Amino acid sequence: MKERITKVELVRMFAEAAKMIRDQSSHLSQLDSQCGDGDHGTTMTRAMEILEGAIGPSNELGMSEMFKQAGWSVMGVDGGASSALLGSFISGMGDTQLDGDLDCATLASSLEAGLRALSNWTKARPGDKTMMDALIPAVEAFRSAAEEGKSPSIAMDTAAAAAEAGAESTKNLIARYGRAKYLGEKTLGCPDAGATSTALLFRGFSVALATEKEN
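Structure (tokenized):
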């Protein structure tokens, strides 16, 4: 069982996450059409394609600079707040000094740095029916697993499960941010598209690391 994540594995993580988003693009837009503009799937697909290219095998930057550059590139994607929020999170992951391969604790710190950067863009927290309902539990779950001495693959699987549970919980919430907040109780019963795409992101990471564990 691998205890560290190499740059090659990091590239595979983002490639798998991009595939997850592409495969679910129509579903994400369908969710968004009930509470928003209906373009979340399209926007996230474009954003993930940029990430997949920026965090690629040909990128010779160190991990910290690679995250920063990739995040800023995503912020330029048209399509509302989703790309800006995702870009802020990814860019923020580079605020941690990442030298060489990543152990579980270092990746946890990087994810937490991304969350702190994102918190400068939005005041949304769990319960507001946004991506934060999936992201915050995922980051917290990853940190807890790291502190328990779990491997990166197990920690990421735990984080993905937490993100999925958080996304599912948004069905029972009333939106408080974005265009959806004007719909009030009409947003009940529909999972938040941003939380759903965040869960797909972490599940993609998990699938990539599980594949590495088997090899």
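The domain at 4-214 is CATH 1.25.40.340 (Serine Threonine Protein Phosphatase 5, Tetratricopeptide repeat). The chain has a mean pLDDT of 91.
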